[in-house]
Amino acid sequence: GEDVEQSLFLSVREGDSSVINCTYTDSSSTYLYWYKQEPGAGLQLLTYIFSNMDMKQDQRLTVLLNKKDKHLSLRIADTQTGDSAIYFCAESIRSNDYKLSFGAGTTVTVRA
Amino acid sequence: DAMVIQNPRYQVTQFGKPVTLSCSQTLNHNVMYWYQQKSSQAPKLLFHYYDKDFNNEADTPDNFQSRRPNTSFCFLDIRSPGLGDAAMYLCATSKLGGANEKLFFGSGTQLSVL
Asked: Which end of chain A is more exposed for a tag (fewer CB within 10 A), N or C?
């Protein structure tokens, strides 16, 4: 099975909060990341969290990390149409030379 | 202001006909990566260069090769493309690799195999 798992789709109304969830299997993850991919573009780093933290906030973005359950989430407050994209969760592990392992991505659709 | 540039944006090749995808960067980063991304799947690392040192992933088929003639350019060569190689190919760079390195991605090349 995949090391990093995400649900494939999320639909949210404009102005509401979006919550994208991710689970990972390797307890030795060092950093966990959220990347955003807009149509026709490459992946862009949105935010990241160090594994000894449980929360990080960056403007409209809040990352929550539950190490016990190996669960990572990204909350986007006041979701806008420009937030429609694919969101990838990724982890880096020291034993793998910190190379990133990505999830399959969650497609977020923002409806008016 | 594109920093990681991939050409072409779309590439069509024939089954078994060699194809080369290119990537260039203006960031002067040490590390360059090639990922394969199929629809609704996670980007999969094929290999990466740390400077001139080539690092192949264990499960990357021999059909995939790479060249990095200088810091700025990196090429992905597919010697005999099969139908299963149709995918988006993403190039990425990072300054040094290692913990918490930010990856910068190009826009990708969408490869079709007829």
From this structure: N
Length in residues, chain B: 114
The closest alpha carbon to B31, from B61, B90, B74, B87, belongs to: B74
Is A45 in the B-facing interface, judged by CB distances under 8 Å?
yes
> pLDDT digit string (tens) for B8-49?
999 999 999 999 999 999 999 999 999 999 988 889 999 999
Tokens of A98: 């910190």
8 Å CB contact of A50 and B100: yes
- With a pLDDT cut of 90, the percent of chain A lying above it is 71
Q: Give the 3-state secondary structure of residue B45.
A: strand
Q: Which two tokens stand for residue A65?
A: 């990390």
Peptide bond into B69 cis (omega under 30): no
What are the beta bridge partners of residue B88?
A: B37, B110
CB spacing of B100 vs A100 below 8 angstroms = no
Q: How far apart are CA A11 and CA B11, in angstroms?
A: 32
Contacts of A108 (CB under 8 A, 6+ apart): A10, A11, A12, A18, A20, A76, A79, A83, A84, A85, A86, A87
Q: Is A53 on the interface with B (CB under 8 A)?
A: no
Structure tokens at B70: 């200088």
How far, in Å, CA of A11 to CA of A75, rounded? 13
State percent of chain B over pLDDT 70: 97
